[in-house]
TrEMBL record:
<dbReference type="GO" id="GO:0005886">
    <property type="term" value="C:plasma membrane"/>
</dbReference>
<feature type="transmembrane region" description="Helical">
    <location>
        <begin position="49"/>
        <end position="68"/>
    </location>
</feature>
<keyword id="KW-0739">Sodium transport</keyword>
<dbReference type="InterPro" id="IPR018422">
    <property type="entry name" value="Cation/H_exchanger_CPA1"/>
</dbReference>
<keyword id="KW-0812">Transmembrane</keyword>
<dbReference type="Pfam" id="PF00999">
    <property type="entry name" value="Na_H_Exchanger"/>
</dbReference>
<keyword id="KW-1003">Cell membrane</keyword>
<dbReference type="GO" id="GO:0015386">
    <property type="term" value="F:potassium:proton antiporter activity"/>
</dbReference>
<feature type="transmembrane region" description="Helical">
    <location>
        <begin position="268"/>
        <end position="290"/>
    </location>
</feature>
<keyword id="KW-0915">Sodium</keyword>
<feature type="transmembrane region" description="Helical">
    <location>
        <begin position="80"/>
        <end position="102"/>
    </location>
</feature>
<keyword id="KW-0050">Antiport</keyword>
<dbReference type="GO" id="GO:0098719">
    <property type="term" value="P:sodium ion import across plasma membrane"/>
</dbReference>
<comment type="similarity">
    <text>Belongs to the monovalent cation:proton antiporter 1 (CPA1) transporter (TC 2.A.36) family.</text>
</comment>
<feature type="transmembrane region" description="Helical">
    <location>
        <begin position="368"/>
        <end position="393"/>
    </location>
</feature>
<keyword id="KW-0813">Transport</keyword>
<feature type="transmembrane region" description="Helical">
    <location>
        <begin position="342"/>
        <end position="362"/>
    </location>
</feature>
Amino acid sequence: MTPLVLVLILLLGVVLVSPLADRFGVPAPVALTVFGAVLALLPDAPTELIEPHLVLPLFLPPLLFAAAQRSSRRDFTRNWTVLLALAVGLVLVTTAVVAVVARWVDPSLTLYAAIALGAVVSPPDPVAATSLAGRLGLPKRLVAVLEGEGLINDALALVIYTTAVSAALTDSFSVADAAGTLAVSVLVGPLVGLAVGWVGRALISRLSDPRAEVGLSLLLPYAAYLGLEELGGSGVLAVVVAGLMLGQGGSDAYTGAGFLAGGTVWRVADWMIGGFAFGLVGFELVRVVLDPGVPTYGVGVATAVCVAAIATRALFVLPLGWVAGRRMRRSAESHGWRESTVVSWAGMRGVVTLATALALPADFPGRPVVLFAAIAVVVVTLVGQGLTLPWLVRALGVRSPEEEQGEINRARAVAAGAALARLDELHADGRIDDEIAEAIRRRYARTVPGLRADLPADVRQRILDVSRVSRHLREAEQAAVLSLRSEGEVSTDAADRVLRDIAARTVRDLYHAG
């Protein structure tokens, strides 16, 4: 069996296994990990699906970009202290604790190899956590924290990883090199992301073909990531900033059809790539376990590292949650020990841990042990925590209030109000007559999507003749919703839901007009 055939089977598994997992209440990442492990046990399965050094640049940019487009400036502003503590403080503490524990269990590991292991297992995976969070109906603030953490913690972890790997291979450490890599990643990265996002938005706004708009959006994350990699830094923050620009303020750059098609394409791509990555975790786990180069004490190192990584997160997050809870009480938002417990248990590792572990050079000291321990952390957290997180959420009674539906209703009301105000202007200017204005006004008043089906044929024809009116109204609606989102009045999810409704009506109007 060739690697290409197995890749196809794994992708087919994403399509078939994920819906079955949802039907039986099993987290899809867990089911796909098991599916990948089963494929690795096939008699003629290849030893390698994808070259290790390609895993990170192939998978990470689109996954980060998709997650960033779903996020918002409001989420980062509200949670910036918590996100900074998790993305910097927790990554540093986890790296240090894991390195100390690994060397204590296996003194033959060099200091730099142990630090590299700590950096590999320190960042949780945003896809695993948020895919479970969305299905469990967690409060949106918790989802924002989990996803925001996963978006930005990779940057520091990858800088530590790169520095430690280089030091382990050369047996020397350069403070200047490490500081330079960190500076490029943290300072230059956002600037590159801004540039890519700005150029991408400008180009998309000048395209009139939805296919070209969506195609360009698919290339942007790779441009941001690889652009900064060429400068010697980690492209994580560049991708995140570019994604925020296209998601937060770039929706108006698309045509209605492009926005609708792009949303669909990105949701499918995010789902397929993330699912494939989890299947790859299972596949590589079996390969590592069956590797005769892993010494027997590798199991002890892996066990100790798993316990250290999980315990460190809990001991860090619970006090942090107490501090955040005191601040949230002053702002009338809830964040107690129950929410902190869920966040501490939702630290599943995924594609970044897998990719960095696989990318270790063949001559890296202690590579078999480090690789085995890293894969073990991914599987233990993904399967163990992934399967028990739903039970924990139910036991603690952590549920989302009907906050998003209220924001959706508000955004729809504001959009309709903006459209009616624009309609009054057009009517007052004499650009549309009384009959058409009243028909459209009735439609918005009732918020019934099918305006044309409710009107006589002659009125429908007259509305087609003045289709420019609908365009003006859609633009007014879209501008109003984008304003709500940019000012933080409604969440990105709520705004995007309404923007998709507006885009769908635009496409429907174009279809009937054609």
